[in-house]
Design brief:
InterPro entries: DUF7318. By secondary structure, the protein is mainly α. The chain is built from three helices and two strands. It has a two-stranded antiparallel sheet.
Amino acid sequence: MSSNGSSYGDIHRYEPARESTAAAIAIVLLTIIEVVFVFLFVYGLMFGWATTEFGNMFLGGLLALVFIDLAFVLALYRKEFLPDVMVVKKRRRKWEDLYVREEDVEGESLADPEDAWETVKRAVYPYYKR
């Protein structure tokens, strides 16, 4: 579904999520595996596995598996259960708001010795006095 609106905030494209059952089952299974990894990590911390060389590497591997599993859960959720929405936004150039004001389009001269230092500070640090 798309609209022809071009004002700021209009929804340009909206595609509903698929919400597949296979993805829901996969998310549940990955969440159970996540809980097991977290339990093993906490158990290992409480019983001092980190005091040995290989136990410390094992806990590091478990922590990596926790975050990798979480990444898969979140990726599946985003792909299968969140709608694809494109919203119309106002387009601006990156530098437009930071550096150029309408009155400063032609630039500033450094001829005045009293204001030369202030001009250099504004050129080096664009957020000066904002």
